[in-house]
Specification:
By secondary structure, the chain is α/β, with parallel strands linked by helices. It has one domain: Rossmann fold (3-Layer(aba) Sandwich), CATH 3.40.50.1000. The chain is built from 4 helices and 10 strands, in the order E-E-E-E-H-E-H-E-E-E-E-E-H-H. The strands form 3 sheets. The chain has a 5-stranded parallel sheet with strand order 6-5-1-9-10. It has a 3-stranded antiparallel sheet with strand order 2-4-3, with helices on one face. One of its GO terms (molecular function) is phosphatase activity.
Length: 177
């Protein structure tokens, strides 16, 4: 049975903004979100190599998106990333997070997988995995750099982690930071 790889959404896999980014040659994907009767249009951009990354790691892991975003916004973005492939098996949203007094959100990975030796989380915000710090894999936040290769750099680590008895023992070394 494959291990579980939990992925953050915003600034990890994609970046979204209410104004289009001129730095991007390709047009962003448009997502219309209605919250409290107000409609907002978001331009969503994929981090470089995200499609290749998802295709590769989906053959190694069960993939779960765990975002502090609202479901009304995140669902259409995840649908776009998944593109009908069915590789993103579960989705967890803001209501599954714990909000800290400073307004940031943490993610308890035991909500996804009881056996924490078999789960890791890639997130640009270390606060997100402070409940399960031994399971976190940091990644630099991404907004618009077209030459970003951070997802590619994680592939060798993720390739080896899938064979580990306990991912926390490997991640505890932190040699890849």
């Amino acid at each position: 049975m494959p291990k579980t790889l939990v992925l953050d959404l915003d600034e990890t896999l994609i970046h979204s903004t209410s104004r289009p980014l001129r730095a991007h040659a390709e047009a962003g994907h448009m997502v219309e979100v209605v919250l409290g009767g107000r409609c907002t249009l978001y331009h969503v951009y994929k981090r470089p190599f995200v499609d290749y990354f998802l295709r590769k790691v989906s053959s190694w892991y069960t993939l779960v998106i765990f975002t502090a975003s609202m479901q009304e916004y995140a669902d259409p973005v995840i649908d776009w990333l998944d593109a009908g492939r069915g590789i993103l098996s579960r989705r967890m949203f803001r209501e599954s997070c714990t909000q800290l007094p400073n307004g940031s959100y943490t993610k308890d990975l035991s909500l996804i997988e009881q056996d924490l030796s078999r789960v890791c989380l890639i997130d640009n915000s270390p606060v997100s995995y402070n409940v399960n710090p031994a399971n976190g894999i940091p990644i630099e936040g991404w907004i618009s750099d077209p030459s970003d290769e951070a997802l590619l750099h994680l592939l060798p680590v993720l390739d080896s982690l899938r064979f580990a008895t306990d991912v926390r023992r490997i991640l505890g070394i932190r040699l890849f930071n």
